[in-house]
Structures are given as structure tokens and as C-alpha cells.
Give the backbone structure.
Amino acid sequence: MERWLFGVLFAVFGLTPWPGQATAMPAGTVIGVSGSCTDHGRVLNRGDIVQIGDTLNVPAGGNLKLQMADRSVVSLAPDSIMTVTSYGVGGSGRDVRLSLTQGVLRANVTSVGGPSTFEVLTAAGTASLASESADWFVKAQPVAVQVGVLAGSIDLTSAATGQSVSIPAHWGTRLETGLDPVLPRIWAQKEFNAVTNLTGVEH
Amino acid sequence: MRNKATRHQNRRKGRFRCCSISSFLTLAIAGLSPTASNAYTAAGDRNFPANLILPQIAPTDALWVDFSTQPMTNGGQTLLTVNYSKLLTERLGIQIEEGIAWKPSGTRAQNFNMLLQDEVILDQSREFLFSVQVGHSFGASTSPPSPVTTPAVTFGKGLGDLPIGYWRPLAITGYAGYQAAEGARTDVFQAGMSVQYSIPYLLSKVGNIDLPPFLRGVTPVTEVLFTTPIGHAYGRIIDTTLLVAPGIGYSRGRGWELGISALIPTTKATGTGIGVIAQLVIQLDYLLPDSVVGRPVFRPTELP
């Protein structure tokens, strides 16, 4: 009887999501993949579900494209590592945090009702959505991060100094670890085309 | 097209000796001088702040207004100038300039100027850019009209790619042009340069230094503009001018930029006392990035 009661309690509490728990929650679906992209060692295929807490690894020569729960599309370039830290979407708005350890990410973020937070965290700083929707790139390098914005507006904030800049459409900038963000400048179309090519997926 | 600098010079001289060749030359120079043309220009991680007396070093989508006053031999001269710069392609742009001049002799419109400028070299990693331009001043504000055409070159070079530590925020810009006058007027050679130390660059590329918020956007700049007549003088006495303009530019990368400089004449033909110039730049490409005024008319193909 005691063993049975313990088993029931374990089952109930073991399956109940704890506040703040970020695992085993669907965040998106793989809609494009090339190369041996993995999720914690599991090779990803088209149609696979990506969960909150998953770390996605795109090898050299690979690409990965995800359709997220809020209909946003996130694409990863070769040699990229990204963790879905949180992906909350609901009637109360959106609260998203992606951690980009290395590589290039393109986020085509849709508009949602209610308050919206969509952040990409890197070692140097955080790039966050400053408009209702946006189409933007984040390139995480060992000692810096670059952000380019095709549409919408993005804020880039230094993790070390707290200083931030706002980047409008067609502009971009760079942030080196431990310093303020560089003042934004217009990106040439060829600069955007370069990162667009990197994050494109051959189906 | 003239530059701001030219305008300043012209105005001053005109006041001094309205009937002298110097005055005439000054006016011509003013028409050609680089106007505070500067909108925000960048090469790699280097943002060059707007110049106040030299021409802008590259075309942009921007609107800027200059206000200046300068003691002259015949009294003070105050100028209000409006510039609009529009990109046709990513590298090629046009600029128009018009303004009002208040002088002891009365208030009148400044010469209308146009400029075509092409950024022919942009080396992001070396923080270097080089542009060629041709400007035309219609000279309608003078009697008889005294149009001038000025082919010129401009450049900007940041020192951030050099291993020089806290000197890396330094940058220089330069300008050289030949003002070809129409009719019985003397041609003029113009040249100028600026030296600047960018605090935003220091904080974003060199070191994390705790500075008050205002200082974080300041760039101390000193500009120098030199003009001298060349060729036939047509019996007139033509003076060389040299204007020095130490000041600051302020920008936090939010779509506008403010600049203010002293105007220090070093020759009598340049001015008789210290003046001041202030400039507000509105970056249309930042504030209205998706509008027709904020983007080049002809753009390269965008990938999906």
C-alpha cells in the first residue's frame, strides 16, 4: 500500500510541470533541414518537433529552418548552435528567448496580440524585438555579435555596459564583448544577401 | 554644388568689399565651399560625424540645417542654410542647397546649389571611403549671376584598423576641389580636412570607460578650409582664405546629429572675428527607412 501510494504521488508530481520548468514543451516544428542537424544528439528530420530547452546543432554545410509556435520562422546557418531557452505564446502575448552560442540566425518574427518579448541572447549582448514584427539576422562570433535588420526594428544591448542602440530596417551594427554597441549604419544589400544565403535551406 | 564652407567664405567676403574682387571671389568660394553637408556617413564600424564647414564625404538620405554667424569687415553676416541629400543608388546621390543670408546690406537668398556625388571606394575593414563629386552654383543671388562649377574629391579614413590603442578613435576626412568660374572671374582652388576623435568609437571598439551619458555621444572635431585663387585675376586683388573650425558633433545613433563649431578666420579675407556655426542633421534613412525618402531610388536585388 505504501509503495502504491508513493508510486501515485511520484506519477502526479513527476508529470506536473513545475513553475519555470522549460522542458518538454513544444516550441516549433522543423520545416526545412539539410545536413545532419541534431537536437541533443538526435538527428532532426522535417516534421520533427522542437521543444523548449532543446539545443539545436547545425553542422558545417547544414541548414535548419523552424516554424515556431507563433508562426515565426527561425533559420540557422551552417556551424550554428542555438538553444530554445523559452518560447511562451498565448492569449497574454509572447515571451521568447533564444540563446545563440555561435553561428548565424535569421528570425522572421510575426506580429502577435498583446505584449511581446522576443530576444536572442549571445555572449556579448541581447538583441530584442522593438517593433510588432521583424525580419532580422544575428551573427554570434567568439568575441562579438552582429545584427542586421531587413524589416522592423531591433534593439541591441550590451551585456557588459547595459548601453543599447536601436536598429531600423536596412541597418545593422556590431557589439564586441565588454563594450558598447557600435553606432548603427546602413547595410549594403550585398551584406544582407550574404547572410540570407547563409540561412537559406535547400529542401 | 557648393559646400557650406564655400558659402561661409563667400558671404563674409561679400560683406567686406562688395565691389572688390575679393568679395566677388569670396562669394564664389562660398558658393562652392562645402556646405555643412554632412550627414552621417560610415565605413565599417566607423561613423563619420557631419562636417560643418567641409562638404559631406559621401552621399546619404538626409536633411540638415545650418545656422552660422560671423563678424565681417562690413558688419556681421548670418546664414541659414538647408540641405537635402538623396541617394539615387547605394553609392550615387544628389544634393540641393538653399538658404537665406542676413547682411548689413540686406536680406537675400543664397545661391542655389546642386551636387552630384559618387562614393567610388568603400573599404569597410579599413574604415576608408573615397568619393568624387561635381557641384554647380547657379549664382543667381549675385548681379550679374556668377555661376561656378566645382569638381572635387572627398575622403574619410578612420584609424581603427591600426594597432595604436587609444588613438584608434581618431579619423581624418579631406576635401579638394577646383572651382571653375564662368565669365571674367577667377578660378579658385579649395582644400580642407578635419581631424576627429570619436568617443562612441572609443566606447564601442577600444575600451569600457565610465563616462557621463552626454559625453558618450560626443566627437570633438576640428575642420580647416583653405581657398586660394588660381589663374587670371582680371585686375582684381584676390585673397587667400583659411578658416579653422574647432567644435563637437553629438550623436547617439538615433537618427539625428547635432554639431557646433567656432569659426576662426586666420586671414582678413576670411573674417574679422570669431563666429559660430550650428548644425542639425536629420537622418531620413534611419527615421523613415522604408519610405521613398529613406531609401535609394534604385536598389540592388534583394534575396527572399
